Amino acid sequence: MGDLQTEEYLLIEKFISEQKCESLLQDIYKYKERFGAKKISRNIKPIPLSYSVIDGLAVQSHLPQVQSLYERVNEFINQSTNQPLFPLASVQVGCNVNITEKGGTYRWHYDRNAVTALLYLNEVEGGEIEFYPNYRVTLPSGKFSPLQSWIDRVQQSPFIRYGFGQKVVVKPKPGLLLVMCGDKCLHSVRPVLGGGDRINIVMAYDVTNASYVVENQLNSYLYSSETVSASDPNYSPSRDTLKD
Ligand SMILES: O=C(O)CCC(=O)C(=O)O
Ligand SMILES: [Fe+2]
């Protein structure tokens, strides 16, 4: 097995079997039929954020199979890192199911947390994840400062990405697990072109007691349909959130 410190990211085929994927998909569809999923749509350029999410609170109370995978993947990751990682303190954010319909995409971003595991449950046309492993130039002063936002914006421009980045493209497949340093690895999802909804489980981990300056703003941006400031809080934390 690879080591996350030296490998930059890990890609594990058949982390779970096709039957297990089927069983998870059935649970997810049943949940969605009964309770629905929150549709998130933010018109960002060049790639909008357009998908539906079942958040960690719903996972914890209604999707025990998904919740136990969050724990199993945690154990797996801790075999390949020096520093032990934990589920996020925020249950809502820790483990999500993303459902991306035809035409849906996920904008360029970094995650707030250190390590993210993406478990794909099915295959669709399009919907590839694109990422630049360990691409981010991070300031020692922290991930959420205004200067860091500026660096992130510059690094996200196509010119800098094409010139300096080493892009990896991964096509979703049932049972495929991708583990990456989500806060260092710039990533986005290409449009889903057909073949049904793209469904994956997004599992977030971090060192113990990790806290995020952008927490509240980012949560309403990612998990609610309410109107938030036009800019992306991952990149531009407002003065208010910086005071926390
Ligand atoms: O669905 C994917 O492949 C990536 C999703 C993602 O980056 C996220 O939810 O933070
Ligand atoms: Fe992400």
From TrEMBL:
Domain called Fe2OG dioxygenase: residue spans: 87-209
InterPro entries (UniProt xref): Oxoglu/Fe-dep_dioxygenase_dom, Pro_4_hyd_alph, Pro_4_hyd_alph_FE2OG_OXY
Highest taxon in the source lineage: Bacteria
Protein's UniProt keywords contain Transcription: no
UniProt keyword terms in alphabetical order: Dioxygenase, Iron, Metal-binding, Oxidoreductase, Vitamin C
Cofactor dependence: L-ascorbate
A Pfam cross-reference name: 2OG-FeII_Oxy_3
PROSITE patterns in UniProt: FE2OG_OXY
Entry protein name: 2OG-Fe(II) oxygenase
Organism: Roseofilum halophilum BLCC-M91
